[in-house]
Amino acid sequence: MDFDLTHARHDPAHCLAPGLFRSLVKGERKKAKLDVTYHYGEHEQARFIGFEPLGADDLRFLQGLIALGGPEGFIVTPNPTSKKPKELRQLLDPKFDAVHQNALVVKTKISSLLHEVGLSDGGKNITAFKNSLLRMSNVTVVLTKGARQASSHLLSFALDDDDGDMHVCLNPRITEAILGKRAHTMLLMDEVRNLKTNPARLIHQRLCGWINASELGRVQLDTLCEYVWPKSTNPNSMRRRRSKVRKTVIELENVGWTVNEYAQNKYELTRPNRQ
Q: Residue 259 sits in a domain of what CATH number?
């Protein structure tokens, strides 16, 4: 199968925020909320607030949208005049400094998005994607730098169910990463497509957020577990989680990473240089 997208330029804060995307058990979305704060830089933080937590499925769809944002995206300025960009901008609900920032709209078809992330365009996947869009559009991203703030939804969207067309507007922070106007995390889409499990997808994005191409990073097994399940748990559950993550590390090897357990439960992970 041929694919058009080679990479996605993602925002590091969205990749590295602990617990923004995590492993979820059945029914957890009905009970839990999303409220994650990530501190970075000097006096800077990103807070993500939503009605439902985000899982590995949401992560995967967002990666695909960001990848599509390169070839299929167009800029929406702070004062659009056309009907569709104006509607998407309003739904994005920018506030404070974000009012003056550009956003990027991805215009594509649902089937194209599903194809590029390695999924078929069957009814089950279409429904899952639509549910994910609604979930992510209800997440508010609040960026703080010193006394200044910028706020918007994670994304906004408009769908045409008759022909499958969609417009997705990505927040200004992600927009700047896609356009190369700020430091970004490079995700290779062939790696994204070939990962088989949700823990592998969650760990892969976090690692890509801080390990550059051809570079090596050291990390403990329990830290990798936290990338998937941010909350601590009892010893029996931790043993099961460690076992799952050990299998997940093999998936990284299968997509080209070099993995070396240099001490018990301590790993050296080298990212391939294929960018």
A: 3.30.1370
